[in-house]
Structure formats: structure tokens, C-alpha cells
Amino acid sequence: MKKITYIIWASALLLATSCASRRSEPVKGRSFNANRSEVVHGEQLFMIHCQKCHPGGEGGLGIAINSNPAPGFVKRLQMRHGLGVMPAFSKKELSRSDLKDISSYMRAWKHY
Q1: How many helices (H) and strands (E) does the chain have?
Q2: Which domains does the chain have, with CATH numbers?
Q3: How far is the C-alpha of 97 from the C-alpha of 86, rounded, in Å?
Q4: Euclidean distance between CA atoms 56 and 44, whole angstroms
Q5: Which of 80, 67, 79 is nearest to 21 (CA)?
């Protein structure tokens, strides 16, 4: 029961902080050099699993995630369990380490 309450609370927090259209500048045309292995791996995973709905981290089919102020653990919770039309990614699809690498990639873009 406590886990369900946590998921509901985290989902509500995510919705409250991410229900806006694009707030960041487009990333097209900018070169990005990933220099840490977890960022490089996160970029690869993002391109495979996330790019089709969040092109360049911007809103496409999904919401813009470049400017989403939600904490990393909330974003990882959403990646694991899904929310709304976003699919859940099982541990077989994306390990805990994979989720952290995707977060590292998105954080690297944010600080770019």
C-alpha cells in the first residue's frame, strides 16, 4: 500500500511540474559532445527508447523533457512505471543503471 501511495504522489508531482508545452530553446543545430561514458550510453538509450516521442528532448508525441524541473528520481519513476500514454519500461528493457544513464544524458543537455 505504501508503494502505491508513493507512486501516486510521485505521479502527481510529475504532472504538476511537467504539464507545459516547450519552454526551452530547440536543440537542433547545436553540437553536443558527451565526454563521460554514462552520458554516451544514456544518449544511445535515449535515441532507442525516447527519441521517437521526445525528439531532441522537446515535445513531440510526448511533453518537452529538456525543461522539466521534476527531480531525476521522479523522471526515472515515470520511465519505469509509465504515466498516461507514456509506456512503462521493464527492468529487462532498461536496467536501473540504464535509467540513471538516460538521466545523466538529459542533465548534460540541460547544463550544456
Answers
A1: 4, 0
A2: 2-21+33-110 (1.10.760.10)
A3: 20
A4: 12
A5: 67
Is 83 strand, coil or helix?
Answer: strand
For cell 504532472, the residue is 15
Per-residue pLDDT of 27-51, as tens digits, reads 555 556 667 899 999 999 999 999 9
pLDDT per residue as tens digits for the range 74-93: 889 999 999 888 899 999 99
In whole angstroms, give the CA distance from residue 29 to residue 10. Answer: 34
Grid cell listed for 66: 529538456
Q: If we measure between CA atoms, which residue out of 39, 16, 52 comes closest to residue 112? A: 39
Which among 107, 106, 108 has a CA at the least distance from the CA of 46? 106
Question: From the centroid of its chain, how far is CA 31?
Answer: 20
User: By the 8 A CB rule, do 62 and 82 touch?
Assistant: no
Side chain identity at residue 85, one-letter code? V
